[in-house]
């Protein structure tokens, strides 16, 4: 499971789904940034983000509170995205679409107000996003892989194929080292967001 050969095989298997997750995310960003990109659900997501930020600011130690809020929220979201993908990969698709649209809507709204979106990206997204986004794409990639391999396993069993669950079992095992990597990436991203990004945006 943790051998170099096993890790290389796991990455080779999940890579197409990882790339697809990136494409879907940025396509959703474009949609979210259009004039009609806002939906009630997206606005609710932004409101939740604002409430979490306000909760951290109102605490005795804002940066520490922000770290734990960010880390717990992102870790829960990525784990859910990865393992809920077993249900035909629907949840990872939904996660990528919503996250991309929320970000696109925020950028579009700020651009309409005449704000410097490029500066926002450099200061408010890039420092922690360089770790956080790949973690999200990896979780989505494994979620999609689990969904596809689950479907193949079910149909393979129905049609009497030899060892129909081999891909699903291998994919499930591959999530273990991936999960360890996700925890490390999200921990570092939360540290950066609650310190570097916090300082730059304040």
Q: Explain this structure to me?
A:
The protein has one domain. The chain has helices spanning 4-32, 40-57, 62-83, 90-112, 117-158, 166-201. Helices cover 84% and strands 0% of the residues. The mean pLDDT is 88. With 202 residues, it is an all-alpha fold. Helix 2 crosses helix 4 (90-112) and helix 4 (90-112) runs antiparallel to helix 5.
What distance lies between the first and last C-alpha atoms, to the nearest angstrom?
43 Å
Helicity range: over 70%
Compute the average pLDDT. Answer: 88
Round the Cα radius of gyration to an integer and report it.
19 Å
Task: Domain count, please report it.
Answer: 1
Question: What letter string, H or E per element, gives the SSE order?
Answer: HHHHHH
Q: How many separate helices? A: 6
| Spatial shape | globular
Determine the structural class based on helices, strands and strand pairing: mainly alpha
Low-pLDDT segments, ≥5 res: none
Q: Largest beta sheet, briefly? A: none
Strand content: under 5%
Task: Please provide the count of β strands.
Answer: 0
Set out the fold topology.
Elements: H1 4-32, H2 40-57, H3 62-83, H4 90-112, H5 117-158, H6 166-201
Short description:
The chain has helices spanning 4-32, 40-57, 62-83, 90-112, 117-158, 166-201. Helix 2 (40-57) packs across helix 4, helix 3 runs parallel beside helix 5 and helix 5 (117-158) runs antiparallel to helix 6.
Keywords:
mainly alpha, 202 residues
């Amino acid at each position: 499971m943790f051998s170099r050969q096993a890790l290389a095989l796991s990455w080779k298997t999940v890579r197409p789904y990882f790339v697809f997750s990136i494409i879907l995310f940025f396509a959703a960003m474009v949609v979210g940034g259009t004039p009609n990109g806002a939906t009630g659900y997206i606005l609710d997501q932004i409101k939740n983000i604002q409430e979490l930020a306000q909760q951290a600011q109102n605490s005795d130690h804002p940066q520490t509170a922000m770290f734990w809020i960010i880390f717990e929220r992102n870790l829960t979201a990525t784990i859910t995205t990865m393992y809920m993908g077993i249900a035909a990969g629907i949840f990872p698709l939904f996660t990528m679409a919503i996250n991309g649209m929320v970000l696109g809507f925020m950028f579009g709204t700020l651009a309409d107000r005449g704000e410097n979106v490029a500066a926002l990206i450099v200061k408010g997204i890039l420092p922690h996003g360089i770790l956080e986004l790949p973690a999200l794409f990896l979780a989505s990639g494994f979620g999609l892989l689990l969904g596809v391999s689950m479907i193949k396993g079910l149909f393979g069993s129905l049609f009497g194929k030899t060892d129909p669950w081999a891909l699903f079992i291998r994919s499930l095992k591959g999530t273990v080292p991936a999960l360890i990597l996700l925890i490390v990436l999200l921990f570092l991203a939360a540290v950066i967001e609650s310190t570097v990004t916090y300082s730059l945006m304040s």
